[in-house]
TrEMBL record:
Its cofactor is pyridoxal 5'-phosphate. Pyridoxal 5'-phosphate binds at A75, T76, W102, T152, D171, Q194, N236, T237. Binds 1 pyridoxal phosphate per subunit. Pfam families: Aminotran_5. Its EC number is 2.6.1.52. PANTHER family: PHOSPHOSERINE AMINOTRANSFERASE. Keywords: Amino-acid biosynthesis, Aminotransferase, Cytoplasm, Pyridoxal phosphate, Pyridoxine biosynthesis, Serine biosynthesis, Transferase. GO terms for molecular function: O-phospho-L-serine:2-oxoglutarate aminotransferase activity; pyridoxal phosphate binding. Coiled coil: none annotated. This is Phosphoserine aminotransferase.
């Protein structure tokens, strides 16, 4: 029996996608074998790859002068790939906004290959808000400007796209495909798949063509966007099953109405939960209202001694993976595209009942 899964990642996948994959697992397309058992260079899998790319382009309205890559290593590999690919054309300085754990990891990797200027930081208020442009301290000659539009752990989301003169780079792992994106404002968008795209094992990189020749000469081949682009993301054997499943998710998203429909759904789901929390004395959100994520909703109980009981009873009620990240504690409900409204309603009902019984 399927339960409601609020995991931050690997996250819930659409049930129709899982059912199709189940049906095709042993006999994909009448070929008598699984998609995992065919050559990635076969005409059949080439069609899967090309269709997935085109569907993603359609969903995000990616301009023609951008490459769309499907790579291994997740977003973490891109923490290294970004400086490797962009520090080879002059400036060895990059601007970063520091808003939480994932920005911190990206910064640490960039510092290994060049100098990082912290444009703004929300550390002063325990990473509970997204800094506005009025607080920026830019270098003026940065090779690129990097930010994390949605911090999965802290539940902080930017409500604006930075306006900068150098290439804008964004780690959209936890909010890609949840709303329309003005791709033309970005030099690079990258995202791990395991939240809104598909299963873990693959990452998407959307990179503007003119940035493909800015890599350092000593870049590892496996991190080169240019190499990947020339090889159609198949310089080595790709994660074929993850790519195939991601393609099924793109089809499902199109059938739901695309990213515009997901934006409305995300607003509805997150408002349900935040409104309940804000009207309760038993629960509270640590994130400042103007920076609250629609994808990841952290919350705490007034008495943290009840955390264990809350987690045990919520799981017994069929609400899975509500424990907050180990670095911040408390609870966290991730409301990605595949999490239905019914799941959020069930969570709110449980929280209300738990408060009545334990408050």
């Amino acid at each position: 029996m399927r339960k409601f899964n609020f995991c931050a990642g690997p996250a819930a996948l659409p049930e129709p996608v899982l059912r199709q994959a189940q049906e095709e697992l042993l006999d994909w397309g009448g070929r008598g074998c699984s998609v995992m058992e065919v050559s990635h260079r076969s005409p059949e899998f080439t069609e899967v790859a090309e269709t997935a790319e085109q569907d993603l382009r359609d969903l995000l309205q990616v301009p023609d002068n951008y490459k769309v890559l499907f790579l291994q290593g997740g977003a973490t590999a891109q923490f290294s790939a970004v400086p490797w690919n962009l520090f080879g054309a002059g400036s060895q300085v990059a601007d970063y906004i520091y808003t939480g754990q994932w920005a911190k990891k990206a910064i640490a990797e960039a510092q290994r290959y060049g100098r990082v200027n912290i444009v703004a930081s929300s550390e002063d208020r325990n990473f509970t808000y997204a800094p506005g442009p009025d607080s920026w301290r830019q270098t003026g000659d940065a090779a690129y400007f990097h930010y994390t539009p949605n911090e999965t752990i802290g539940g902080v989301e930017f409500d604006y796209v930075p306006e900068v003169s150098c290439p804008l780079v964004a780690d959209m792992s936890s909010n890609i495909l949840s709303q329309p994106v003005p791709v033309e404002k970005f030099g690079v968008i990258y995202a791990g798949a395991q939240k809104n795209i598909g299963p873990s094992g693959i990452a998407v990189v959307i990179v503007r063509d003119d940035l493909l020749d800015r890599a350092r000469e000593d870049i590892p081949r496996s991190l080169s966007w240019n190499v990947a682009a020339d090889a159609g993301s198949m310089d080595n054997t790709p994660a074929t099953f993850a790519w195939y499943l991601s393609g099924l998710v793109f089809k499902w998203l199109k059938a739901q109405g695309g990213v515009g429909a997901m934006e409305a759904l995300s607003a509805r789901k997150s408002s349900m939960l935040y409104d309940f929390i804000d009207n309760s004395d038993f629960y509270s959100s640590p994130v400042e209202p103007g920076s609250r994520s629609r994808m990841n909703v952290p919350f705490v109980l007034a008495d943290d001694r009840l955390d264990g009981a809350f987690l045990q009873q919520s799981e017994e009620a069929g609400l899975l993976n509500l424990k907050g990240h180990r670095s911040v504690g408390g609870m966290r409900a991730s409301l990605y595209n595949a999490v239905p409204v019914e799941a959020v309603q069930a969570l709110v009902d449980f929280m209300a009942d738990f408060e009545r019984r334990m408050g």
